[in-house]
Design goal:
Layout: H1 4-15, H2 24-32, E1 37-40, H3 47-57, E2 61-65, H4 69-81, E3 89-92, H5 98-110, E4 115-118, H6 120-123, H7 126-133, E5 137-142, H8 162-169, E6 174-178, H9 183-192, E7 199-202, E8 210-216, H10 221-231, E9 236-240, H11 244-256, E10 261-264, H12 270-281, E11 287-290, E12 303-308, H13 315-322, E13 332-338, H14 340-350, H15 355-373, H16 378-385, H17 399-402, E14 407-409, H18 411-423, H19 430-438, H20 443-447, H21 464-476, E15 480-483, E16 489-492, H22 494-501, E17 507-509, H23 531-547, H24 552-555, H25 558-567, H26 572-575, H27 582-603, H28 621-632, H29 637-643, H30 648-660, H31 668-674, H32 677-689, H33 695-702, H34 709-724
Length: 725
């Protein structure tokens, strides 16, 4: 076997490193002795070396089971860079053609290949099982091993079949590696891989260089992200979104605003995905907007920020994704945007799944929500989740520690919680216990007749949300345990029972309040509308409308004035960026408005919000151009809608957006086909006299017995185009 000096010489020869990091040396030595090995190591800790070096030193080929094609390609490229022989590492997956597969097999048989990366789906194919039986295998490495567990953040059923396939090919030592595993997930992995006797190497999950922050997700989340990236210009970053559609939209928005960004998701064709990943690694672009399909194992050490546009489905997923920042030990900012509304969407996505999966998913989401809303140290919360104690009250590198909340005495409340948990026979979750303590008669409390207990309402009148906060902080303090095996049932620990016998001060911080984006009273610029300026703009609009003999809404609608009174545009070019204004209206009516705003800003010494103006993407800009050109050619509107895959109402939405933004279109040819001149005149005159131009009011006044909704909308579009643009 190799001694320490020999191992150092080998790692220097093959990889150029002078020393090992953390547990690397002990892990490598254990695997070289052909013992099963379980590695828990955070992102950036050097997991890959733990199986790469042994593969070069042991006889045969190491089989690395890996979940993502992108990860395999990245790892194979990295290994080939360390060797003069390209055949030293290969991958075997669905992206290869028959000729490429034959080349891989030839290199393995010849002994050139020391590392063969295989997707679990490829491992189960009969022809691959047959081939691997004939090969000298040094060991099996199961990367991203958390994929085995239903309680892991990226559970994959095919990972459950790895052990039976290994038995079929031929048993060899196994090394399982993951950057995220709670004690429950760790046990699940070892049990499933039949390696309960493996030596476990667990590194600290603490990444001191990472800064954690959770921000409310308001209507201005896009603007906030662009402002953040502009303040970190030239730095590499990843933005995670849950949906492919949002990935595409946000990447386009960033590009429109001068940020070098590309999209990455599983719905893209393989060459495009690969090209976008390479562009990020080669620093041709600064930002990748991606679903969670991106980044697993990506060896880019200088990612300076990771932004979560949507709250992740679990704390394990959050930890792994944020862990892609600052892998070189340098700056790593982790910003998450959180809204309770997003939680509701994620719960809906679970519908239709087996009951067991739904229960697990809801529990993982509850942990994430608790983390987001908590005011205690984020690092402490994360480390506790992974079974690690963090004994400092203030880490100095998260939003909660840099802006601490006042602590509140909660000795009585925590004692009440402990008593209720025991009275409920330690069989209920956080929400139920909190409602019993507070005397909140929910359907669950009533159905289990908890309201009949003497202890019901022991803290009558307390806010159940505050009691839930006390419970969560009691868990971190070690007074309460959450039984993950039973979906989060609360148990009182020995420390908790001792506390009940001799209570002492128990200080907590209240959770943060989050307002859903749709309820937030926010203007387009991210601050409240300036009421004085808004009133002045309305007066000016009235004067401009009167001088043009038009209703005020034809000039600019109220939402546009609100945006002006929030972002203070002082040039016509800036005014063009206001929703509902556009190029045409800005040139036609904009001058007096920007002059008024400029004077108001100077007189009142208004500090404009960072002098930052976000460029927006015109709504379906390709459709807009297509529709305008189609109307110019007098194409029937139904045919236009059908050619764009729209229904007629969606077409009218598009046409309304076009005229609201100041573009002139002539749809008279179509209106003449479906309406008499008298009908047209009556609707047109109504909108000439209307103060608001509101469609609901128009339907009521004109009557839907005499007119159809789409007829009223079409004439309104004609009116706005002719009179306002």
């Amino acid at each position: 076997m190799y001694d320490k000096q020999q191992l150092l010489a080998e790692v220097k020869r093959h990889f150029g490193f002078d020393t090992f990091k953390g547990n690397q040396e002990a892990i490598i030595a254990n695997l070289l002795e052909e013992r099963d090995t379980f590695v828990l190591m955070p992102t950036g800790g050097g997991k890959s070396l733990c199986y790469q070096l042994p593969s070069l030193l042991m006889e045969g080929t190491a089989i690395v089971i890996s979940p993502l094609i992108a990860l395999m390609k990245n790892q194979v490229d990295a290994m080939r860079n360390y060797s003069e022989e390209d055949g030293i590492a290969h991958f075997l997956n669905s992206s290869l053609n028959k000729q490429a597969i034959e080349q891989v097999k030839a290199d393995v048989v010849s002994g050139k290949t020391k590392l063969l990366y295989v997707a679990p789906e490829s491992l189960t194919k009969e022809e691959n099982v047959e081939f691997l039986r004939s090969v000298k295998i040094s060991f099996y490495a199961v990367d991203e091993a958390h994929c085995i567990s239903e309680w892991g953040h990226d559970f994959r059923p095919e990972y459950r079949r790895i052990r039976p396939i290994i038995n079929e090919i031929g048993p060899r030592p196994i090394i399982a590696l993951t950057a995220t595993a709670t004690p429950k997930v760790q046990h699940d992995i070892q049990k499933n891989l039949a390696m309960t006797n493996a030596r476990v190497f667990k590194s600290s999950f603490n990444r001191e260089n990472l800064y954690y922050e959770v921000r409310p997700k308001t209507k201005d989340v896009d603007r906030d992200i662009i402002r953040f990236i502009k303040a970190n210009e030239g730095k590499s970053g990843i933005i995670y979104c849950l949906s492919r559609k949002k990935v595409e939209e946000l990447a386009e928005l960033l590009r429109v605003n001068g940020i070098k960004a590309l999209a990455y998701h599983a719905g893209m064709d393989s060459p495009t995905r690969t090209a976008n990943q390479d562009a990020f690694l080669l620093e041709d672009v600064d930002v990748i907007v991606a679903t969670i399909a991106f980044g697993m194992g990506i060896d880019k050490p200088d990612v300076r920020f990771v932004i979560h546009y949507d709250i992740p489905k679990s704390l394990e997923g959050y930890y792994q994704e944020t862990g892609r920042a600052g892998r070189d030990g340098g700056e790593g900012k982790c910003i998450t945007f959180y809204s309770r509304k997003d939680l509701g969407k994620l719960v809906k996505f679970m519908q239709g799944k087996p009951h067991n999966e739904q229960e697990i998913g809801k529990q993982l989401l509850a942990e994430t929500a608790g983390y987001a809303e908590s005011s205690i140290c984020r690092r402490q919360t994360l480390l506790h989740y992974f079974g690690e104690d963090y004994d400092r009250d203030n880490c100095g590198n998260c939003d909660n520690c840099l802006h601490p909340t006042k602590r509140i005495e909660a000795k009585d409340e925590i004692c009440a919680v402990l008593e209720v948990i025991l009275a409920l026979k330690e069989r209920y979750k956080i929400d139920c216990v909190a409602n019993v303590v507070a005397g909140n008669l929910t359907a669950e409390v009533k159905s289990f007749r908890h309201d009949e207990l003497d202890i019901y309402g022991i803290c009558s009148g307390a806010d159940p949300k505050f009691i839930a906060t006390v419970i969560r902080q009691g868990i971190i303090a070690g007074l309460i345990d959450k039984d993950i095996e039973n979906y989060g049932e609360l148990k009182v620990t020995a420390k908790g029972k001792a506390f009940l016998k001799a209570p002492h001060s128990f200080l907590v911080v209240e959770d943060r309040e989050f307002t859903d984006a749709d309820d937030a009273d926010m203007g387009v610029g991210g601050g409240a509308v300036d009421p004085s300026l808004f009133a002045m703009l309305k007066d000016l609009r009235h004067d401009v409308a009167r001088s043009n003999k038009l209703p005020p809404y034809v000039i600019f609608q109220d939402p546009s004035l609100e945006a002006m009174a929030t972002t203070y545009p002082i040039t016509v070019d800036e005014l063009k960026l206001i929703p509902g204004v556009g190029d045409g209206k800005a040139r036609r009516y904009g001058k007096p408005f920007v002059e008024l705003i400029k004077k108001y800003v100077e007189v009142n010494e208004v500090e404009r919000p960072d002098d930052f103006r976000m460029r927006t993407i015109p709504n379906k800009s390709n459709s807009k151009i297509f529709l305008i050109q189609g109307i110019d050619r007098r194409i029937d509107l139904e045919s236009l809608a059908e050619s764009r895959g729209m229904n007629f109402d969606e077409l009218l939405d598009e046409l309304e957006t076009i005229v609201d933004n100041g573009y002139k279109i002539d749809i008279q040819y179509y209106i003449d086909q479906i309406m008499s001149p008298d009908m047209q005149d009556e609707i047109f005159d109504y909108f000439r006299q209307s103060e608001s131009g509101d469609l609901e009011e128009a339907y009521n006044e004109l009557g839907l017995d005499d007119y159809k909704e789409h007829e009223i909308r079409l004439v309104r579009i004609k009116f706005l185009s002719e009179m306002g643009n």
